[in-house]
Please model this.
Amino acid sequence: MESIIIEGTPKTPTVHFDSVQGVFKLEGRSIPENSVEFYKPLVDWLDLYKENPLPKTNVEVKLEYFNTSSSKCILDVFKKLELIHKAKNDVEIKWYYEEDDEDMLEAGEDYESIIRVPFEMVEIVE
Amino acid sequence: MGFNVENYFKDLLTDDVIFSYKGDISSEVINYILDSVERRTEQDKDPSRVRKKVYNVLVESLQNLYHHVDKVPVDFKDQDSERFGMIVVRKNTSGYHITTCNFITRAKVEKLEETLDKINQSTAEEIKELYKFILHHQKISPKGGGGLGLVDIVRKTGNTLNYKFYDYNKDYAFFILSMWVNALESSK
Model:
């Protein structure tokens, strides 16, 4: 299947879901008014990917800001990853946060407590 | 008619106002407001924690307006704005003070008031759990949230939401919502 590459905008993140390497990156700002419209294609794509996933999928989330409507969509993305993990495939989510950004760390910990996939919290030190 | 929107807006414009806007809250206007205030917080070299919290509160409060404001009353001067709202950002030594104002049909007041009171009466720990509960259990709608935006604002600022409803006419109230981001972040 084809990879997804979407350039970021001031309100939407850069998306790089590489189906060959099994590296999925989400980076930048995610604050669109209509998050569902942006995330639905990603969730649909993951639905296809989960039918035939690579043995190891590495997910990197490096968000500077995200709004609450994105937070629900990101959870939907993670739920698909959880299904892939549940089907005995290796999945890891690296959640990046800037060193003084406790809010972003806590947001990652929220997801970690809801989703049964190994998370790693990675502090970005400037 | 008991309430004058124009005068209320003028009264909000105190000396410490760094940004104000009155009119249609479109997606483009939201971009403009976010850019303007973000630039200001960068120029002022505010600590990045404060900058981020201000930005987050602005995003949530503006998008709440975008998704939820009611159409203006028929006798209101500005009939052209699809989503009429006002926002005032003040800055002083204690921090950033963000106020949003919008019309709401009176039928919705009671429920919103209940939501606000419930959030305000919650402890920090309860807010965190409430956030996770709404995140996990409520369906996504194109309008977002289920009150998640308000919960997020309280969680990130550590401050309660100040609010007031003024009677506008028999069908409408005017809703004022004020939020604080403390200048020196406590570890609340």
About this structure: Chain B has a mean pLDDT of 92. The CA atoms of residues 161 and 179 of chain B lie 6 Å apart. The helical segments of chain B are 5-12, 27-43, 48-68, 109-120, 124-137, 148-157.
